[in-house]
C-alpha cells in the first residue's frame, strides 16, 4: 500500500482486489445490449433513490417530471433552419472613399514622429 499519511485504509481492506477491478473491469459487448427508451418508472426510482439511497423525494419526483417533459417535447431543429440566405443585390461595386476635400483617394494619415530621447551611458 501507500506510505502517504493522508490515505487511511482499514487494515484488512482488500486493496489488491479493488485494484484488479479497475485494471481489468468486467465489460459487456456493446452489440449484446439492447436499450429502449420508455417512460420512467417513478415508483421504482423513488423506492431505490429515496428509501434505499436517502435522496430527497421531491427532487426525485421533479427529475422524473423533467424527463417526461423532455420526452414529450419536440426535438431541437438545426441552426441553419432559422436563417435564410438572401440573394445579393445586383448593385454596382462600392466606390472608393475620397479624400478630405472630395478629391482623389484617401491617404493614410502618418503618425506624429517624436524624437527619441537616448540616455548616454
Short description:
This is Flap endonuclease 1. With 121 residues, the protein is mainly alpha-helical. Helix content is 30%, strand content 0%.
Task: Give an overview of the whole structure.
By secondary structure, the chain is mostly helical. It has a domain at 38-72. The protein contains three helices and no strands. The protein has helices spanning 15-23, 42-52, 57-72. The radius of gyration is 35 Å and the shape is elongated. Residues 104-121 have a biased composition (Basic residues). GO terms for molecular function: endonuclease activity. Keywords: Endonuclease, Hydrolase, Nuclease.
List descriptors:
single chain, 121 residues, mainly alpha, endonuclease activity, Flap endonuclease 1, hydrolase
